[in-house]
C-alpha cells in the first residue's frame, strides 16, 4: 500500500489550502482514510477521518468548522480542505488508512506534507 500526500505550502493566516492523499496497491473491503499532524517535538495529533463507503466523518475539536474531509472514490483520493488557517496549524500533515473512521488509527501511512501559516 502506498499513500502519496500533496498540497502543503505557505499561506497567510486566514487563508486556505487543500491537501490531497492518493492511495494505491492493495484494495480494502472496508476502510477509512484520515489525517494526522505533528509539530516538532510533539506527539502526532489526529485531525480528521472519513469512512470510505458511508462517508461518515470525524474531526478533532480544534478544526471543526474550518476543515472539511472528503473523498473521491474513483481517484482513491482523500482531501482535507483547510480554511481560516491559523499560525498554530503550521505543522506536518500525514495521511493514513485504517479500518474505521472512529476511532481512527492508521495502519498505513504516507509521507508528510508541510503546511506553514504565516501571521
Amino acid at each position: 500500500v502506498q499513500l502519496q500526500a500533496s498540497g502543503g505550502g505557505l499561506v497567510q493566516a486566514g487563508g486556505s489550502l487543500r491537501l490531497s492523499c492518493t492511495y494505491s496497491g492493495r484494495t480494502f473491503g472496508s476502510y477509512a482514510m484520515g489525517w494526522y499532524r505533528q509539530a516538532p517535538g510533539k506527539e502526532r495529533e489526529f485531525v480528521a477521518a472519513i469512512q470510505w463507503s458511508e462517508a461518515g466523518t470525524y474531526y478533532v475539536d480544534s478544526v471543526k468548522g474550518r476543515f472539511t474531509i472528503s473523498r473521491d472514490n474513483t481517484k482513491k483520493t482523500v482531501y482535507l480542505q483547510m480554511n481560516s488557517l491559523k499560525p498554530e496549524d503550521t505543522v506536518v500533515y500525514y495521511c493514513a488508512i485504517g479500518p474505521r473512521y472512529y476511532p481512527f488509527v492508521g495502519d498505513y501511512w504516507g509521507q508528510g506534507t508541510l503546511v506553514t501559516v504565516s501571521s
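The mean pLDDT is 93. The CA atoms of residues 3 and 40 lie 22 Å apart.
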